[in-house]
């Protein structure tokens, strides 16, 4: 088998000869074996017209013959976790000093890049805005000591110095950070204040969801009812642990999902009625010991317009 790689910057062009051992194989299977990538990626290259067999455009199911010449254009794979510097409209800087930056995160923004997410990120915004953040942590998550879901808005802190990263990471790990959320949930939790202590693990049927599971991670949520209305209750929630989707999963387990949280069983009719296109959940306060001064600091975030408007509708409903 001979190969003549010719780098073209954004892609690589290779010409190879089919070896005897792959004669009779499907083209996508043969490509996968010869180039070492997945069969689905091989099929994609054929579908995009980037593969020619003896000069003609083949089907992915075509059988290959020994000695046939394959011309393959291989686009450079984009790194799914590369940080893309990009100013994100709506991110507000609440506080900034040498140790840390506290932001108000809008919805539709991920904290850091991840496979499958091509939208804006907090890390990308801070990079584009010229913030120097800590280099501790994986390259795409440098300086990140906590996360908020893409669909959850509110206050969060990012470490700028390595010392602050270490201290804050430790504080979150030892649960000495006060994380306060407000959630508008369907119905009226009984009792009006309480604690949900139920382990959370990935949902076995849907990999994008989580669920209360006996084999899940220890998860504790404290809630208190601030306002009770006809269709929904406004809760103040303190997280003792910080699992992915923790509040959403625990509220759904109580049969009081966050209003608008269709992923976890919220009523779509009520969501439409109050004009919500996401879960009513907001990180309102964050309190911790400042890593440099040692004094207790607390930062707050007001409800964004969509949540404030839907809460008013709930208050006015009779």
TrEMBL record:
Single Gene Ontology MF annotation: RNA binding
Into which EC class is this enzyme placed? Answer: isomerase
Question: Which reaction(s) does the protein catalyse, per the Swiss-Prot or TrEMBL entry?
Answer: a uridine in RNA = a pseudouridine in RNA
The record's EC number reads: 5.4.99.-
Active-site residues (renumbered) = 149
Q: Which Pfam families match?
A: PseudoU_synth_2, S4
Q: Which GO terms describe its biological process?
A: enzyme-directed rRNA pseudouridine synthesis
**Does the keyword Secreted belong to this entry?**
no
Keyword Glycosyltransferase on entry: no
- Look up the domain of life of the source: Bacteria
InterPro entries on file: PsdUridine_synth_cat_dom_sf (IPR020103), PsdUridine_synth_RluA-like_CS (IPR006224), PsdUridine_synth_RluC/D (IPR006225), PsdUridine_synth_RsuA/RluA (IPR006145), RluA_PseudoU_synthase (IPR050188), S4_RNA-bd (IPR002942), S4_RNA-bd_sf (IPR036986)
**What residue stretches are annotated with the RNA-binding S4 domain?**
25-82
Q: Which UniProt keywords apply?
A: Isomerase, RNA-binding
Q: What family is this?
A: Belongs to the pseudouridine synthase RluA family.
Q: What does this protein do?
A: Responsible for synthesis of pseudouridine from uracil.
Q: What is this protein called?
A: Pseudouridine synthase
Q: Which organism is it from?
A: Nocardioides iriomotensis
